């Protein structure tokens, strides 16, 4: 029979709108009952069962494994020891459902798992959640996480919050847990908002003594980042120079002596301040400025 005899046959395409969602729901039910699961993800002492095809469809990490010929390609178990079991379980549930519930308690482990397993959109959801929940209690950890996972916009947002609110953050225990590099980065910022520079010296001392054995050697570098000429002369002489940590390092004594000389003769040295001293005011120490415009 010639082909053209069928050319006028009626053709109609039917589409079940909820078919993809229905299939996913059925796959989730299969997983929930352990039916046809063919892979176990081992995280610590926990095994998380799933289907290879579903994982490959939802994770570029697993897609790479199952489209290649690695040892894991044919294994019935894959070790994910560096991740958190709860985070991996949440990510696997997302792959099966397209739904994720993030909290301050799980977002960090979910982000780690989502990044490692390379799950589309999930890293963005974590970033959005962290962005929406930057506060005094979370800003330092969000800043660190944003840097770790190369979330540049989030890092800028968290850093701005920290700089703007440092007068409150400086009193919190979390600031004492900062690595030296991060604390130094903050201390070097013109935008660091503080009422008085003296508070930063007290923070440096407190931070150093929090783990004095391991941090003592970093004290001179942190001290050099402070703007001692912004402090009151009486404070430098009576409080700063009497600090035992300061007296352990000749370079610290020299720096404070130089600052005292400057503070005693600011008018003579204002046009050419000593090279080792930063006299530039910070945002929080700037006094009110009245601008008068004439017409």
TrEMBL record:
InterPro entries: BACK (IPR011705), BTB/POZ_dom (IPR000210), SKP1/BTB/POZ_sf (IPR011333). Keywords: Kelch repeat, Repeat. It comes from the Eukaryota. The keyword Ribonucleoprotein does not apply. Gene3D superfamilies: 1.25.40.420, Potassium Channel Kv1.1, Chain A. Residues 37-104 form the BTB domain. This is BTB domain-containing protein. It comes from Branchiostoma floridae (Florida lancelet).
